[in-house]
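Homework help board

Subject: predicted structure for assignment chain

Our instructor gave us this sequence and asked us to write out the predicted structure in token form, then describe one feature. I got the tokens but I'm not sure how to describe them. Can anyone check?
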Amino acid sequence: MKIGLSTLSGVSYGGITFFNNLIPALSRVDKSNEYVIFTTKNGLRLFGINNEKFKYVIVNGIVKNAVLRFLWEQIVLPFKLSKLRIDVYYTAKNINVFFSPVKTIVAIRNMEPFFYKEYKNEISLNIFSFLRNLLTRISMLKANKILAVSEFSKEYLIKNYPHIKHKLHVVYNGNPVPGNPSYNKMYNSKGAYILTASKFVTYANQLSLIKGYNYLNTQMQNIPPLWLAGGIHDRSYFEKIKDYIADNKLTEKVKILGLIEHSKLIEYYSNAFAFIFPSTLEACPHTLIEVMSCQVPMAVSNLEPMPEICTDAAIYFNPYSEKEIAQSIHKLLTDKKLRNHLSKSSLSRSRFFNWDLTAKSLVKIFESS
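My token output:
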């Protein structure tokens, strides 16, 4: 069988991390099928492997422009798939190849298009989300099989789109971070900090976290600073966060790190005293899988799929309750027994997510298409 897949959407560190782990895993577990990978010159450098069963087709000039990339995938790619005699094409994002001459498998890795109306986003983002919602629904209709990256995502899709139930399969992300063998930090030590990481967008809910942190800051002395990592996706929401920090005189306590290269981000995870994740919308929060490998105690939103992913490796709070967020941070700061338990549970839970297992599940789905 000849399997096609594209890395053209892997332009940020989340996508880069995904393909940088998936492609070598497929090479390890699949010795019979051939793969044709559509990528760029930079993608070849990042994702290229020395395996005769993996062939690369270089695509340049359109990748950084989402519209051009979409048009290329819908107009040019079908001819490429036919010419190269691809048997099945896998796209690791929501958008399928609508007029594909071969069987297709689409992964629903982004739940935001289904929920964007519930959030106060910039108008431009809402327009983009509306279009992506439309294209995602068409993609699911066209696909031969659909991958969800959590049971939560699968159940949501079944409930709202019951006609695609027979196509759905759950395949979790793997874990690219080797386990950290030790965790023994004291919050009152010099250099200690509390960390969160997510792009700045309304559903990521950093503002509620900062408000909860500020509430605790008024009740408790000498708590570690709060550091926020992530790029800016919604500028107006980001400005609200900056204004709140300034208005509440938190500039010495809350630090915005910006978008951080992945290997450096892992260092930040590993050295954090605690990790707080207030997000209200995720498909499969890969960040939490990575943090668990670093054995860092976590307090996490109690909305699914966070409990599904972390199980007993985190404590949970209502992400809309600033008081609950503050109480959760306080527990992590003061309860050493709890921190030790979470640290051990985190490493154990992180081992559930394995790229080779992810690759094996994908190969079975490819071969049964």
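Reply (TA_rk): Your tokens look well-formed. For the description, you could write something like this. The first helix runs from residue 13 to 29. That's the kind of observation they're looking for.
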